[in-house]
Amino acid sequence: MRFRRAAIIGLALLLAAAFCSGIRAEDQNRGPETLIINGGRRGNVRLPHRQHQQRLKDCRICHRFFPQKGGSIEKLKAEGKLEKKQVMKHLCIHCHRKRKKAGRPAGPVSCRTCHKRK
Ligand code: HEC
Ligand code: HEC
Ligand code: HEC
Q: pTM for the complete prediction?
């Protein structure tokens, strides 16, 4: 009897731990659903952030270039740690072009489909 009670308590604790870690994953700050990136004189660029998170799964694909913080691309460019158009060429267009070539769903590769002048 003693053993059975211990087993039940153990199981309850295990379930509680699983439940809590589930909540924590949900609580992770995923940032906004859609982002507007400063695109300089060409006009701003809209990034469907959530759509990319769901498609690409791994946050680091983008966030190894810049932190998970609004305005960080701008800041790194101002500090000379990122070149102008570096993110655009080596991240955004690079991936879209590669996928398009492979015949997979991809994002835009022409200037005006990304940059919008108001
Ligand atoms: C396709 C590229 C891309 C992917 C993938 C991506 N992000 Fe982002 N994320 C961005 C960009 C761009 C910004 C805005 C940076 C800026 O404003 O300079 C950003 C900003 C953020 C911010 C800050 C928002 C704010 O307003 O301060 C958070 C938080 C964030 N991302 C979380 C995540 C998480 C979590 C994942 C993975 C589940 C993820 N991102 C995947 C591109 C991406
Ligand atoms: C997939 C989307 C996308 C496409 C296609 C694209 N851009 Fe960009 N562009 C961006 C993003 C995001 C930025 C901001 C980050 C950066 O500078 O790397 C940017 C930044 C820029 C800047 C500003 C750089 C600065 O700091 O002053 C210019 C100018 C520019 N792009 C021109 C172009 C031209 C010209 C084309 C077409 C040949 C083009 N872009 C195609 C997404 C795109
Ligand atoms: C590693 C690959 C990858 C990277 C990096 C990436 N994208 Fe994409 N992008 C995609 C894919 C895949 C789609 C098509 C999604 C779909 O059809 O569901 C897409 C679609 C898009 C679309 C069209 C969304 C729509 O359905 O209207 C835009 C706009 C876009 N991307 C902008 C960007 C910008 C800006 C960046 C850089 C900050 C970027 N992407 C970086 C893979 C990528």
A: 0.89
Q: Is the shortest distance between the CB of 95 and ligand 1 below 6 Å? A: no
For residue 107, give every residue at least 6 positions away whose Cβ sits within 8 Å of its Cβ, in sequence order, or none: 92, 95, 96
Q: Quote the CA–CA distance of 79 and 70 in Å, as a whole number.
A: 16
Instruction: Give the domain extent around 101.
Output: 35-116
CATH number, domain containing residue 60:
3.90.10.10
Q: Summarize pLDDT for 25-34 with one digit per residue, the tens.
A: 556 799 999 9
The answer, yes or no, to whether any atom of ligand 2 lies below 6 A from the CB of 107, is yes
44 lines ligand 1 (CB under 6 A): no
